[in-house]
Hints:
This protein is globular. By secondary structure, it is of the alpha/beta class. β3, α5 and β4 form a beta-alpha-beta unit. It has 2 domains: 4-135, Rossmann fold, CATH 3.40.50.300; 141-401, no CATH class. It starts with a helix and ends in a 5-residue tail after the last helix. Helices cover 40% and strands 17% of the residues. The relative contact order is 0.10. The chain has a 7-stranded mixed β-sheet, with helices on both faces. The chain has a 5-stranded parallel β-sheet with strand order 2-3-4-1-5, with helices on both faces. It has 15 helices and 12 strands. α9 crosses α10.
Amino acid sequence: xxxxxxxxxxxxxxxxxxxxxxxxxxxxxxxxxxxxxxxxxxxxxxxxxxxxxxxxxxxxxxxxxxxxxxxxxxxxxxxxxxxxxxxxxxxxxxxxxxxxxxxxxxxxxxxxxxxxxxxxxxxxxxxxxxxxxxxxxxxxxxxxxxxxxxxxxxxxxxxxxxxxxxxxxxxxxxxxxxxxxxxxxxxxxxxxxxxxxxxxxxxxxxxxxxxxxxxxxxxxxxxxxxxxxxxxxxxxxxxxxxxxxxxxxxxxxxxxxxxxxxxxxxxxxxxxxxxxxxxxxxxxxxxxxxxxxxxxxxxxxxxxxxxxxxxxxxxxxxxxxxxxxxxxxxxxxxxxxxxxxxxxxxxxxxxxxxxxxxxxxxxxxxxxxxxxxxxxxxxxxxxxxxxxxxxxxxxxxxxxxxx
Length: 403
């Protein structure tokens, strides 16, 4: 299937000389995207660190790769060079820096991999100014209904998603293979394989082997309390490690795309909480409780939207939740350039009035929009964002206007 990121990659290389890094979880479709882009180039070259021949070529140095790609010769068109999983090479940043600097404007360089590509957080030689980063997410309603690039964050009106596609997304998650198959037996086998890869293969590179079983225990605890405030000390007592160890391990699980963190917004909120985060899973299909899955489902859509909007250059967007010491709470707040923008409360069922807390925080922080998003409400062909007051909206309508 076509993804919105294909248009992002193609537009990037039409307008920019910088390398493009695609960062995201395993099996989210990074390699498939790379190969689909190759079809738009007269010449392209794919180098995988997991291939022995390619690995030897990369280790041999920039000149050998340039020779393979024909960069020493006069070229009619600019070729595409794809480097997959190159972050496994200890000197990958120096290699890419050398290739980019020695052959300016002679190749479009696309790099795919995991969170280890996030060079902002790593030491060593800087690639600053030499690349742009895009974070790749699982499939969402907005991407299924409209995969084109827009000139603004929000779609001007909703688009209806076929019911069977919504059910597949809800039941099997947004990773391409299980979503497209929509087959329970395949889905169960896929989940088992992915869990093994995460906790037996990926974690071996990130921590000591004797800690893996307790990291699995932490992952299960976080899964059981999706959408709830998480106390590092409570988790530490349950697993019998220190609070600092829990902080370190949750960071590892985030870097491997098992979960993501949402922290409380405290600016201009009376008696707000300051520390306790919430955790959500990248794969909402793992969650059995309907209410928790509903909240995670929307959280994943919102995270994808703020990452895309930020990476695309529309501004700086962040995702928070709201809760004060009197236990008034709203599930999510999107800020735009550090200003409250969209307030979101999530409900699985539509037979409830608007949450009093939604009104309360809407009056307090004055975002531009406030919604109570309900999973089981039928689609309505009405622009959610035309309203300037708190409103109950179907998830199928609201989420179609995001990315």
